[in-house]
Amino acid sequence: MSIREGKWDCKTCGQKGNRGPNTYCGACGSPRPDNVEFYLPDNAEEITDQALIDEAMSGADWICSYCSTQNNAFDSYCVACGNKTTEDQGNKKLQEKETYFDQSDSPEISSNQKPSKGIFKKLLIGAGTIAAAFIILAGLSTLETDVDMKVTKLSYESSLAFEEYKNIREESWSLPQGASAVSTFRAIHHYNKVPDGYVTKTRNVKVKVGERKVKVGKKDMGNGYFKDIYKNVPVYENRTEKYQEQVFRQVPVFMTKYRYNIMKWVTMGPYKTKGEGKNILFKENPDTLKGRPDTVRNIKTDVVYSITATDNRGNTYNENVGSKIWLKSSVNSNIKGTISTVFRYFKRYKE
Ligand SMILES: [Zn+2]
Ligand SMILES: [Zn+2]
Known about the structure:
There is one protein chain. Helix content is about 15%, strand content about 50%. By secondary structure, the protein is mainly beta. The protein is elongated, with a radius of gyration of 50 Å. The termini are far apart. The site of one zinc ion has 8 residues, from loops.
């Protein structure tokens, strides 16, 4: 606990640095005002006189409700008029207040920093130009021209998938119903974690080794004195310590496993087949498969059709089409194609 003497400035005559505990201005004799502001000079020395310390610690000065004289907390009667100090008479006290030093050095970061207007404007203009270019290109690409073409090739890709009831080989930890066992063997079912001693390791630890008293603020005692405010701050030390860590071993557990044959519905495919011409072939004939309802089910077929055609400039196009146009076309038949007027890329065949 350190007690120091504060000071106050007289607002009546402008005198600076009246001694804190003095209730009258040393220059003009004006009384210390009710709203006096005490301050602590940086070089104020610590008070060691016990009587002064006791005075400082006795509490804030009180203001006589009758004559406004400021009295020490020790005084039970007003030194000027003899008025008694009791709460019910409405005697007010000077204010005590604590001030803490600012311990955060971090500067404030402004969250509303925006890029400068110039850059923003340039970006906007740039984005606008790109958007405009896209709109023009998109507009141009909607322009279409129909071109006479000749079909040179009809092609397809067929796809076939189905489920087949088959005898398959499987392995499992038990023999299912209806399965016929082929063999049994021992296999690793799982691993057991078995303790296998300890290893010594080191780690860094933060150890509290004591406390340090740090001055964090000052208290205006409301009587011309100030008291330092301290806080106990823990002091840590980094140490390396050894510790034991348990280690484990993985031990395999073997069990009997079955290898067996069993009848199951198995997904087959999808099988893809590419071909030319109008006779669409699949990996297996779907009609034949349909004739085996006991062993085949869920037959799925799909065909992707495409037409290759040449225009009178000698450009060749190849596009996937719907089944309708494919089925009514044949090699050397005429077909109309739609292309982009400006960019000449192929769009679609005309049905
Ligand atoms: Zn004065
Ligand atoms: Zn008085």
